[in-house]
């Protein structure tokens, strides 16, 4: 089921890693619902096009953790996609960029706020299993 949902989402690969671009309510629900029944780590990356550290962090890290799923939410595009994605950002208190929220089975288990690559890697390693 997880792989079927992921096939229909806008996504890009970077070496071995996968990043899902969340651009609609349907995409978010597909990712969130499939991850609720999976033991995989979901890392939500709240980002913006103008945030250089946001993009560089993900590009450097995602390929190292192919067992995790990275979902990107571009906060600049939130208005384009309506109130739903604004509510996603608000729910996870993504007020500072970059912000990385870690979920397992639909529950928040950790987060990293700011450009802290060592902390990000440490927490992904800690929670990926």
Key traits:
alpha/beta, globular, 6 strands, Glutaredoxin, 6-stranded mixed β-sheet, 129 residues
Overview of the molecule:
- With 129 residues, this protein is α/β, with parallel strands linked by helices.
- It has a single domain (14-127), classed as Glutaredoxin (3-Layer(aba) Sandwich), CATH 3.40.30.
- Helix content is 37%, strand content 26%.
- It is built from 5 helices and 6 strands, in the order αββαβαβαββα.
- It has helices at residues 2-7, 25-36, 52-61, 83-91, 117-127, and strands spanning 11-14, 17-21, 42-47, 69-74, 99-104, 107-113.
- It has a 6-stranded mixed sheet, sandwiched between helices.
- It is globular, with a radius of gyration of 13 Å.
- The chain starts with a helix and ends with a helix.
- The model is unreliable at 1-16 (pLDDT under 50).
- Pfam families: Thioredoxin.
- It comes from Brassica campestris (Field mustard).
- Residues 36-125 form the Thioredoxin domain.
The residue-averaged pLDDT reads 77
> Uncertain segments of ≥5 residues (pLDDT<50)?
1-16
In the residues, how many domains can be counted? 1
The name CATH uses for the topology is Glutaredoxin
What fraction of residues sit in β-strands? 25-35%
| Fraction of helical residues | 25-40%
The radius of gyration is 13 Å
Describe the sheet with the most strands.
Answer: 6 strands, mixed
Second-tier CATH architecture: 3-Layer(aba) Sandwich
The 3D shape can be described as globular
Distance between the termini: 20 Å
What is the CATH level 1 assignment?
Answer: Alpha Beta
Name the CATH homologous superfamily: Glutaredoxin
Instruction: Report the oligomer.
Output: single chain
Query: How many DSSP E strands?
Result: 6
SSE class = alpha/beta
Question: Which sequence of strands runs across the widest sheet?
Answer: 1-2-4-3-5-6
| Pattern of helices and strands | HEEHEHEHEEH
Number of helices: 5
């Amino acid at each position: 089921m997880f792989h079927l949902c992921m096939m229909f989402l806008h996504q890009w690969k970077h070496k071995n890693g996968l990043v899902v671009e969340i651009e609609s309510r349907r995409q978010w629900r597909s990712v969130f619902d499939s991850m609720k029944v999976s033991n995989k780590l979901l890392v939500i990356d709240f980002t913006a096009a103008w945030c250089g550290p946001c993009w560089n962090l993900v590009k450097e890290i995602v390929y190292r953790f192919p067992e995790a799923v990275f979902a990107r939410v571009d906060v600049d595009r939130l208005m384009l996609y309506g109130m739903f994605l604004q509510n996603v950002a608000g729910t996870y208190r993504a007020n500072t960029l970059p912000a990385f929220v870690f979920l397992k089975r639909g529950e928040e288990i950790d987060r990293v706020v700011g450009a802290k690559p060592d902390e990000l890697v440490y927490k992904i390693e800690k929670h990926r299993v």
